[in-house]
Amino acid sequence: MAKKSAKSEDQSLPATIAAGLRESILAGDLVSDERLPGEQELAERFGVSRPTIREALKRLAAQNLIRSRRGPTGGTFVNRMSWGEANDSLATLSMLAIGMQGADPAEVIEARLALLKSCLPFAVKRRGEDHLAKMRVEVDVQRGAGTSDEDFCASDVRFHRALADAAGNPMLSFQMAGVVEGMQPLLNLITYQARDREMMAAGAEEIADAIEARDAKAAEAALARIAAYVSGLATGLLTRRDAK
């Protein structure tokens, strides 16, 4: 039993070392683009073998926290993650979590509405002509006779991304990546089967009009109407599915 315990402890060393380095990165003790000590130095610092350090570094690389570079100026460096990369990671994680957990569509729609509403007051104050132009383009796409179901749903993502970006706050845009893009596959299931395109495009246009007019109440009312419409579709679909 003692041997088994020791083996288990050895296997946990890379995870423990990776967790310690991760904390240093997140705390800012190891800053973006900083070069980490070499494997041998890290092995001596932690009192482990180089293969153990190598495994710990693989774990950090899998989390996109570090990168390696070959050559005379190479080594292992703390990654500098852009907002775009962070948004993509959050959207993917949200998508996986929702799919694996079998999320309740009503809860998904409720969360989406709540977080979109949080963007509206800032979007009304800070929106630029480029944000409005992007939203208008997506309304036209959604009304296009040749727009496929896939393109319609992708347009919906882009419309709400433009809305979030209009708030002028990278942290809000980051949070919205999980809401808008991560939840999209579930909402696609609803919109593919039952949605009225014109109803949804008209709602998007109302939101854009209200943001352009800097009318937060009107924007919130339009957003709530679309959320109620989609929620009703989801309830109807689930009811019919359960009745079969």
Question: How would you characterize the overall build of this protein?
Answer:
By secondary structure, the protein is mainly alpha-helical. It is built from eleven helices and two strands, in the order H-H-H-E-E-H-H-H-H-H-H-H-H. It folds into two domains: 9-78, Arc Repressor Mutant, subunit A, CATH 1.10.10.10; 83-243, GntR ligand-binding domain-like (Four Helix Bundle (Hemerythrin (Met), subunit A)), CATH 1.20.120. A two-stranded antiparallel ribbon has the order 1-2. Strand 1 and strand 2 form a beta hairpin. The model is unreliable at 1-10 (pLDDT under 50).
Q: Largest beta sheet: what is the strand line-up?
A: 1-2
CATH class of the largest domain: Mainly Alpha
Q: Which sequence of SSEs, written as H and E, runs from N to C?
A: HHHEEHHHHHHHH
| Total number of strands | 2
Strand content bin: under 5%
| CATH level 3 topology of the largest domain | Four Helix Bundle (Hemerythrin (Met), subunit A)
Helix/strand/pairing class, anyone? mainly alpha
Assign the CATH architecture of the largest domain. Answer: Up-down Bundle
- Residue windows where pLDDT falls under 50 for at least 5 positions: 1-10
Based on CA atoms alone, the radius of gyration comes out at 24 Å
**CATH H-tier superfamily of the largest domain:** GntR ligand-binding domain-like
Q: Could you give the distance between the termini?
A: 54 Å
Domains counted in the coordinates: how many?
2
What is the helix content?
over 70%
Described by the principal axes of the CA atoms, the overall outline is elongated
